[in-house]
Q: What sequence folds into this?
């Protein structure tokens, strides 16, 4: 699996519409997704997958340069439901199709059913005429990060959670990651971001910004439940080395101030039995780590927070050759994720 | 618009499933479509568009080399609902998106609604990243044939039918065909094939097989209602010239013996108010003219009729450089069309 900073053929996204995830019939979130797609498409081809009933609306709202294709889905988290793309030494790109159980199956009940989500990787691979591996492992793309040189970053909270692969040992899971992603070394962090609905996806907590270098969401507030989580991750990372044996360099990026869902926001959501209830007052798992690396750009969340500028400056330092672009992403965060969660890079491959 | 015999980038099809068109839940027709796709895909890339609920079934039934993409539709007639592809002198291919009213709108009521069909050209163009012209004319792809050199062949019965473009004069329609297809000369034949549900699509009656050469469905039986229709077409063609002023050479291909829908076949269909009833005993508009020209092959209908072999021999003479492949197509004919109706060629373009 190439690192996210390796050249992309393009970026895949899915269109938000479900009324129990996205308030006001999805309209505010759609505007945020449009802004993200518009910015990313300045740097690489963006393909937006849409349910049939939203094709015309999405086509009308998106810039013409964004490709809009029919791609039925239960929700818009392309990072988690989409394929993971891998490339061999000859540059041939293939898709890995993980098993998906909507972040924890029926016991978790983020939503039900997730039958359309399960077909997303196959449909993406078909459109691109790419071969596809069906990996026997329940896994979401947001629960892994790689450096493209053999190192994988993940949380124990998520990958070892009994609601994903209860029958598999840690060694067994590590073997499958090695088999399907070509990694040789895994850095395990204990837990993800506080209040994250994904059981601690790595992509909201910590990511590679280069070989041997990671960025970690941080807070100086010892009273915040996130403090302990970031601190223990920092300790693990400080003691860790990558696949090449190089010690990790860790950059802290201070999180935005704690945010909660407002009464007005919660009132815009359908409340249904078959999906998680998102009540007013719910803590939102805001983090600047949930950015997307495009060809030549960093597409990062902005929250209208006093920390926005410091985070942007830090990312500009970490990616000196890329333009850092902020997207007002509160509407995406209200749905439970952020820019990395709604994107999936397709690496540039050899021309067949 | 290039001639159908010009090199193709590929072939588009749609998957049959509606229970009021295709008997026994579509299963026999699906097998016929699979056979057609399998044969065509030996010569050029085939993309099969499917409704979301048939993705897995179609993927499982089709050979791996056929690309299966989600493409919602009301029925499987890609020739009529799909785009017409055109190319400019630089080899840039674009899609023409005609208006579609399901072969005659509400007064005809082949089926209702046809909202998904109307979006097929846009979705095909999006997948291929092709620009698209929205043509202000109700027209189906099966109602026109071109020689790629400025000549268009059509029937007055269909193109001038008041259920298509009642507000437009013949001259107005001719102008629009000239504008969108780049044709300069139209050969009008009076009527299409007897019992054809399309109000006389040209593609079941007569087609170009080369510049200045056409094949025409024929019967020697003066008692058959088709006789008069073919004879009047023959007379028109014999007096006609193409855009270059060259007289037309006409090859007759004798039609299969008259066929009707059996009691058993009719019993396999849902009978619903919102679609045309297809009763037992209905005459089927069988014709060998409804073949598809693939790169290096002719994909032709077979009916298990005594005329099958003569038709195949004739097509082999007319296309000496192509392999002639017969498909048992009764199940497609039962739905109201044949191989040309379920395919749409995408011309090979310049590499951008």
A:
């Amino acid at each position: 699996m190439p690192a996210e900073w390796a050249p992309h053929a393009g970026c895949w996204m899915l269109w938000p519409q479900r009324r129990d995830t996205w308030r006001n019939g999805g309209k505010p979130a759609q505007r945020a997704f449009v802004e993200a797609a518009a910015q990313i498409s300045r740097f690489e081809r963006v393909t937006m997958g849409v349910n049939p009933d939203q094709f015309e609306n999405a086509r009308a709202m998106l810039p013409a340069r964004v490709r809009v294709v029919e791609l039925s889905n239960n929700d818009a988290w392309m990072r988690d439901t989409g394929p993971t793309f891998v490339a061999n030494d000859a540059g041939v790109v293939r898709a890995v199709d993980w098993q998906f159980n909507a972040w924890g199956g029926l016991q978790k009940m983020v939503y039900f059913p997730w039958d359309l989500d399960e077909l997303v990787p196959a449909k993406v691979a078909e459109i691109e005429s790419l071969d596809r591996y069906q990996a026997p492992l329940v896994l979401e793309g947001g629960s892994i990060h790689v450096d493209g040189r053999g190192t994988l970053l993940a949380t124990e909270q998520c990958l070892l959670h009994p609601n994903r692969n209860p029958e598999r040992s840690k060694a067994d899971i590590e073997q499958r990651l090695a088999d399907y992603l070509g990694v040789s070394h895994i850095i395990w962090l204990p837990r993800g971001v506080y209040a994250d609905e994904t059981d601690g996806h790595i992509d909201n907590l910590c990511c590679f910004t280069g070989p041997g270098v990671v960025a970690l969401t941080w807070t100086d507030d010892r009273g915040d439940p996130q403090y302990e989580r970031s601190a223990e991750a920092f300790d693990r990372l400080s003691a860790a080395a990558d696949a090449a044996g190089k010690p990790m360099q860790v950059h802290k990026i201070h999180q935005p101030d704690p945010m909660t869902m407002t009464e007005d926001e919660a009132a815009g959501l359908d409340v249904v039995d078959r999906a998680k209830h998102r009540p007013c007052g719910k803590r939102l798992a805001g983090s600047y780590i949930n950015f997307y690396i495009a060809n030549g750009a960093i597409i990062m969340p902005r929250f209208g927070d006093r920390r926005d500028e410091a985070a942007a400056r830090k990312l500009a330092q970490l990616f000196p050759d890329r333009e850092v672009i902020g997207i007002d992403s509160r509407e995406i965060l209200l749905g439970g994720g952020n820019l990395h969660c709604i994107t999936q890079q397709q690496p540039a491959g050899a021309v067949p």
Q: What stands out?
A: Residues 146 and 152 of chain A are 4 Å apart (CA to CA). Chain A has a mean pLDDT of 97.
